[in-house]
Amino acid sequence: MPKFDLETTYLSLDGQGRVAAHPVDDQFWATVETNTDLLANLVGVYPGDADWPHWEMHPDGEEILVLLDGRMTMILDEAGVERRVELAPGSTLVVPRGVWHRALMSEPSRLLAITYGQGTQHRPA
User: Fold this and answer.
1) Is 38 helix (H, G, I), strand (E, B) or coil?
2) Phi-psi region for residue 20, left (φ > 0), alpha (ψ -120 to 50) or beta?
3) What is residue 90's three-state secondary structure?
4) Which is the most buried residue in 15, 37, 44, 46, by most CB within 10 A?
5) Phi, psi at residue 32, to the nearest 5°?
6) Taking phi first (over 0 means left), then psi (-120 to 50 degrees means alpha), and beta for anything else, what does residue 6 get?
7) From CA 18, how far away is CA 53, in angstroms rounded?
8) Are 107 and 77 in contact (CB under 8 A)?
9) pTM, entire model
10) 18/113 Cα distance (integer angstroms)
11) pLDDT digits (tens, 9 = 90+) for 88-118
């Protein structure tokens, strides 16, 4: 596999040692639910400079978030109770399966995410 950037090429992992690369273009997120080439876990780096306009939830697996640069607050909706977690560079957060979450940006950030994405749901913020 040639060298690449995790902001423009995501990796998917099958949990048994297989890795596949997926170039990210304008259609990636529009077709993610039907993309049969994606393996179980998705790994990518997500730059952000604005609050997430939606909540997301992964019903079938936990999500690992590692803040690479910047500062943000992750809001977790745990059974109707919001918990805020401040993230600074190097901070790691494991979002439990089935927990709605979203990010508020304190400054432009880059976030590494390892997500079991099958069944991911979104709702407006």
Assistant:
1) coil
2) beta
3) coil
4) 44
5) -60, -35
6) alpha
7) 33
8) no
9) 0.92
10) 18
11) 999 999 999 999 999 999 999 999 999 987 8
